[in-house]
Design brief:
Layout lengths: L1 H16 L4 H19 L6 H17 L9 H13 L5 H26 L8 H14 L4 H24 L1 H14 L5 H7 L2 H20 L1 H12 L5 H15 L5 H19 L3 H9 L13 H8 L5 H25 L11
Helix pairs in contact: 1-2, 1-3, 2-3, 2-6, 2-15, 3-5, 3-15, 4-10, 4-13, 4-14, 5-16, 7-8, 10-13, 11-13, 12-13, 12-14, 13-14
């Protein structure tokens, strides 16, 4: 049915974004959505067409917040945390802390889709035929595809069970070496396909955070922020941080939000005796939920490029989702997190 198709795309996009970049997942699903649109002969004013493209954006965005693998903002936050506070968050802990919010938001987003974009078609046989033809063209999985899948699975297992002892970065580098050894990738492919500008940007963000710590700039900013805050209650402060991160990401990339907010807020947390790990979580998780503006995340930008969505569509639906995110995130941080050793000490 049309409704089940939306649920399937939303769930698949979210699931894949748990183990690979949500931006890459959005790019992979875009031609699939285009094929479905073509098979259904949808008009540009179709509400089902709007919902289809939003499943691409929302599924990849929500799934990308569930683990450290979904986006560069989470590893960047962990790196800044390690440089500025000398502590870290393991791969498993991050997943346990962030996954419940992502799961609940996935369910809520599905209800929001059905509520704000009611289905205006009854039959999806055309889409089924279009997708079946594309699957037949793909053929059987090649050796490189099997090997890549096995390497990804092995790497995730090492991150989960040996991340604390070996380090996430060490395991990642070993996985890259293994990709060359077993023939999953060649150096020319890496040169062409890796966005080296992003790597340099993340490195620069970590260096900026460390420079702010060493020069005392983060402490100075923390003092100025504390002077303006009406309350120094840790729950209120972290809630404000989450709210700011949640909305800043609509105007800036989530990595930029992490790089800008984390150093001074870590300084503020250290002055008030707040666990700095909570700062990383309260910045990096909320800023991953970009639903409103096309510049917030590539997934939303791709969804807009389909020609069905208008700014008012994502403004209405995205604002509802953002309100839900803040409530769900705060509820889990106050109820579940203390059981996992990440409680807020008031």
């Amino acid at each position: 049915t049309p409704q089940r198709l939306l649920t399937a795309i939303l769930t698949l996009a979210a699931g894949m974004s748990c183990i690979m970049s949500c931006h890459a997942v959005a790019a992979m699903f875009f031609p699939v959505i285009h094929s479905i649109r073509k098979g259904l002969s949808l008009k540009s004013n179709s509400t089902y067409g709007k919902a289809l493209y939003l499943t691409l954006a929302w599924g990849s965005t929500i799934g990308g917040t569930a683990t450290l693998l979904g986006s560069g903002r989470a590893p960047l936050a962990v790196a800044i945390l390690q440089e500025n506070a000398g502590t870290t968050i393991s791969f498993t802990d991050w997943a346990l802390l962030s996954f419940p919010t992502a799961l609940v938001m996935l369910i809520i987003s599905r209800f929001v889709l059905g509520w704000m974009f009611p289905t205006d078609i009854d039959d999806i046989s055309g889409a089924r035929q279009e997708l079946r033809e594309q699957v037949n063209e793909l053929g059987k999985l090649s050796y490189r595809e099997w090997a890549t899948g096995a390497l990804i699975t092995t790497t995730i297992m090492f991150w989960m069970f040996a991340g604390d002892s070996l380090g996430l970065a060490t395991i990642s580098l070993l996985a890259v070496v293994a990709a060359f050894v077993i023939g999953c990738a060649t150096w020319s492919e890496v040169e062409d396909d890796v966005n080296w500008g992003i790597v340099l940007m993340y490195g620069g963000a970590i260096a900026l955070g460390l420079a702010m710590l060493k020069t005392g700039a983060s402490a100075w900013l923390a003092e100025r922020v504390l002077e303006m805050m009406p309350s120094q209650n840790p729950i209120v402060l972290l809630g404000v941080v989450a709210f700011i991160a949640l909305w800043m990401t609509e105007a800036l990339s989530n990595a930029a939000v992490v790089a800008l907010i984390m150093p001074p807020v870590i300084g503020m947390a250290q002055q008030l005796g707040i666990d700095p790990r909570l700062v990383a979580l309260f910045v990096a998780i909320p800023c991953g939920y970009a639903f409103v503006m096309p510049m917030g995340t590539p997934g939303t930008a791709l969804a807009f490029s389909g020609g069905f969505l208008r700014q008012r569509d994502t403004l209405r639906a995205g604002t509802v989702l953002k309100m839900c995110v803040l409530v769900v995130f705060l509820v889990f941080s106050l109820t579940l997190w203390p059981w996992l050793g990440y409680g807020i000490q008031v």
